[in-house]
Specification:
Number of helices of chain A: 10
CATH topology of chain B: ABC transporter involved in vitamin B12 uptake, BtuC
Number of strands of chain A: 10
CATH class of the domain at 2-87 and 174-262 in chain A: Alpha Beta
CATH superfamily of the domain at 2-87 and 174-262 in chain A: P-loop containing nucleotide triphosphate hydrolases
CATH architecture of the domain at 2-87 and 174-262 in chain A: 3-Layer(aba) Sandwich
Helix content of chain A: 25-40%
Number of helices of chain B: 15
Oligomer: heterodimer
CATH topology of the domain at 2-87 and 174-262 in chain A: Rossmann fold
Largest sheet of chain B: 2 strands, antiparallel
Radius of gyration of chain A: 19 Å
Structural class of chain B: mainly alpha
Radius of gyration of chain B: 22 Å
Helix content of chain B: 55-70%
CATH class of chain B: Mainly Alpha
CATH architecture of chain B: Orthogonal Bundle
Shape of chain A: globular
Chain lengths: 272, 349
Amino acid sequence: MSTQTLTVEPLLSCRGLVKSFGRVIGLNGADLDLYPGEVLAVVGDNGAGKSTLIKCVAGALIPDTGDITLNGERRDFKRTQDARLQGIETVFQTLAVSPALDIASNLYLGRELRKPGVTGKVFRMLDKKRMRTEASQHLQDLGIGTVQSITQTVETLSGGQRQAVAVARAAVFGSKLIILDEPTAALGVRESARVLQLIKDLRDRGMPVILISHNMPQVFEVADRIHVQRLGRRAAVVTPQTHTMNDVVAIMTGAMSVDEKDQALGPVRSAN
Amino acid sequence: MSNPDSGTIDLAEEFLGRRTPMQRIQVTLHRYPYLSPLIVLIVAIAIFALINPRFILPGNLSFITQQTVVIGTLAIAQTLIILTAGIDLSIGAIMVFGQMVMANLAITAASNAANFGLPPWLAITIGICASILAGAINGFLIVKLSLPPFIVTLGTLSVFTALTLILFKARTIQGPEMPDLLKVMGVAIKIGSFQLMVGVIVMLVLFAVFTYVLRMTSWGTHIYAVGDDPQAAELSGISTKRVLFSVYVVAGFITGIGAWIYIGRTGAASPNADPSINLDTITAVVIGGTSLFGGRGTLIGTLLGAFIVVVVENGLALAGLDQAYRVLAIGILVIAAVALDQWIRKVRA
């Protein structure tokens, strides 16, 4: 199967990303490839540059040097809005939800719907009703609609429910790629399972996902390929089929290195 | 017992959902932040009416609305700023500057001040533009130089005050010198023995317009989001800098209208006008239930807060108490309002 799909171009490709924060080096020539329709897990020890890497892709950080190409075109994201306009949605570790606003307002934050006609164009009136009905529809569709009311403020929600709102926002608006940074870190067992199911659903819809996680069993459950980040670089890319959890941990800590021909640098999912 | 797999409602979550009466009050006040000022205002009016029946005579009530009009108008601007977790200490200085620009440009009387004699509408427009510019300077310093609003406006408070005195030679322009249009906000419409000032109507219209803006437009939503959690707002694709800057510009515009109202209200334009107005606007906003930490509050609360400030002062005066007691009462109210806000905010946890 690998010979057939080798011609598939990566959807997203990062080359030689460098990002330093004063004297601390977050990324030291990091590469990343994401192929259409796959779930790519990014794992690594604390300080390996996982979050920095995806923040560069999401437009939240601007790399010092290096290229990011999306569908073969070079992109220089200055703000998260730039990445969002290209269809890249990110759930940050901090969730980036506004506690004092209600669920619907949060879902549509930064891309509110206005009423049609003069009320919307001249008086700039928001279409709150439509945002609310569509927001609750989206939450239902994603199977995470466990909140009592869509007009609840986010600060009254539990950690898991807040996570659900953030994930829902990404899932609804992401058209090319969804990035999840530690989406299950704050969640209970059942809520985690729901997020993992959501990731699988997204993949089944053909939506590529980058998942950053510390949780090896979860990574091995959903990932097609596992990108191991170490000391600001890509140490190896393996698959759950070819390597064990212990191997991945060994690569993370530098106890093991994988020869390039044994890595899964190309796509492993056959595009339908 | 319900089936644990039925999913939507956890037994544990249901237990957490149970609330004591105290928590219910907390949650209700959290949801409707203008409830507490409303209760305070009603109680205050009732008590003052009992102490001195003259308090609720139409004459005194019109006086209260006239006393409120400037604080109320400026408090709209202050609310927008405090909602972004900022503060404007220079708002009174900007207003004084704006009214001096208006009055000096409009007068023709030969005097030691410059003798422009511009058409009144043009003088008012330029005065409002001067206030907008002053707001934009605040916004620029806060957004571009990333300075804290407290420090910036503390500085511009002195700058605008000094500028007023330097440019306009500390000369008070009396009512008869000014054309009527400048004083139109002070014209009273008689409704029985109640006198409704034009400025009060303008203030209420501004409250209505900006309530709409805050509740029904993207810009309004973004103001709350930026005040609530600027990082989250930025990551959600909101340009926090643009929102902040625009808020200070719009606050300058409202302050310019406030300057026009002030001329009508006092019938003169004095460079030494009312130094307490800065703190009164902040007091009104805080008593009105808007959080100094940003992201939470309403304009209806601010309107009630402005009335509370004036009602307490007026009521205590009519009750025969010394000025010092009025200041004391306002001070206690402010501290109580902030303490209440802290308690209400714990709902989050």
